[in-house]
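Fold it.
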Amino acid sequence: MIRSGIPAQLPQISAFQHLDSTILSAMLSVARTLTLKAGEVLLYQGDYIHSFYILQSGGMRLLQYTEDGQCVALKVYGVGDVFGLLAISGSYPHPTQIEAIQESTLIGIDGQDARALMLDYPELALTIIDLLTAHVHEGHDRVRHMATKRVDRRLALTLLKMCEKFGKPLDGNLLIDVPLTQRDLAEFSGTTVETINRTLTQWEKQGWLICSHKRLEICDLAALQVVAELS
């Protein structure tokens, strides 16, 4: 069951921390928190989304179900990520399922409430525009990478992004502290499970990472960064 409460940490979210305290207080006055256990669904594919969400703790992922019933992982959100911003223009059927990877806390703000605040606070409106623009650029980059970049570079970029969102120091390494299967990595990177397995095995032999069931430790972040920067 999704549990609701009163948000308390909006000023600590990087996307909004530059805003004046008056604006943050106004946002908090219309916000709510939702707590989900691992595996709980925020929205099913096709459900109408009415609010945008800010991830306060934990991790969320987007899943797409195909016509033949296959489930494809499309994206992962980490702490501080904002999603569902199109709800500001009105409710719409969400094209993917959104579920918690681990216990997660979200701040939700109804799109119409946010729209009203944007009329009163132009700086908030500009921030929302900037966030939407960043999402568009990210989508374009993902399509471009899938079409033009080598598989090993796409996987390196995926792992670096996971490190940024979920990385935790562990005995000199960086643990990606979220359960990830090789299938997840294949879907995020736009390749096959076999290719992911082969590449991870090679990188493990080179000492770049330690791979076990749903667990990845990065031992040589610099090596992945070099691969990610290759043309």
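Residues 122-148 form the longest helix (27 residues).
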